[in-house]
Amino acid sequence: MTRNSPNSHTDETSLVLRKDEGPVATLTLNAAKSRNALSGAMMAALHTALDQIAGDPAIRCVILAANGPAFCAGHDLKEMNGISTCDGHAALFSQCSALMMRIVTLPQPVIARVHAVATAAGCQLVASCDLAVAGTFAKFATPGVNIGLFCSTPMVALSRNVSRKHAMRMLLTGDPIDAQTAWQMGLISDVVEDDDLITATDDLAKRIASRSGMTVKLGKEAFYRQLEMPLSDAYAYASGVMTDNMQKHDAREGIGAFVEKRHPEWRHE
């Protein structure tokens, strides 16, 4: 069943469109003329949509897509160039960082569906998502060095997805990479034919959404928290998470269903 969220803008003039199909919400960047640049208004609209989804128990997975010839061209350079103060630029980059953190801290997994170019902060947006499915036509770049503005904030997400030398090569040259290279580097999780991009992403989102929402939420949070811990601390933390997980209804239901050879009936708690 397809439904438009009553809490989101759904008209075609909105910067971010939301469409729900069962437990999967698709957020679509809708500023094709600006190549979906992350202007202050675009970032605010996307952040608001994510906040609404975070509090929506009916949604268990999110797809982040885009209309137009680009997935996302990064920051709006005209807007940036029109800001004359240090405080103004600091506020813009802080807003962008908060948006990326909102994706990471969102209870639901977020899958980027990349059909075309994702550059600079657009590449950061892809790297910040939990998964990313790209068509073969997609390209990725952090080209700030070409215009005298090193992609320092995109570097944070990029360097947490790919090896140091791969990240540095992208950052120091600004050269674009194709989808197959991005997959080999670990920037994206899947590459599919362009004609199959929507179906493949939808199928992946539906598979994730068919799992216990409680379990996925708990696991996503634990994944990111343990990444920055020393090994022994990570094991201690993860052991505590699994102990807590075992006390939940869905863990008992899932194990019982496996033993009894039946499908689990999730309560998402």
Please, could you describe this protein's structure?
- It comes from Thalassospira xiamenensis M-5 = DSM 17429.
- With 269 residues, the protein is α/β, with parallel strands linked by helices.
- The chain folds into two domains: 208 residues, 2-enoyl-CoA Hydratase, Chain A, domain 1; 47 residues, Lyase 2-enoyl-coa Hydratase, Chain  A, domain 2 (Orthogonal Bundle).
- It contains eleven helices and eleven strands.
- The two termini are 23 Å apart.
- The N terminus is likely disordered.
Return the CATH architecture of the largest domain.
Answer: Alpha-Beta Complex
How many domains, in number, for the residues?
A: 2
Strand order, main sheet: write it out: 1-2-3-4-6-8-11
- Compute the separation of the termini in Å: 23 Å
Q: In what range is the share of β-strand residues? A: 15-25%
Radius of gyration: 19 Å
CATH class of the largest domain: Alpha Beta
Helix content: 40-55%
Content-based structural category: alpha/beta
Q: Tell me the overall shape.
A: globular
Keywords: Fatty acid metabolism, Lipid metabolism, Transit peptide
GO biological process, one term: fatty acid metabolic process
GO molecular function, one term: hydro-lyase activity
Protein name: Enoyl-CoA hydratase domain-containing protein 3, mitochondrial
Note the main attributes of this structure.
Lyase 2-enoyl-coa Hydratase, Chain  A, domain 2; 269 residues; 2-enoyl-CoA Hydratase, Chain A, domain 1; 11 strands
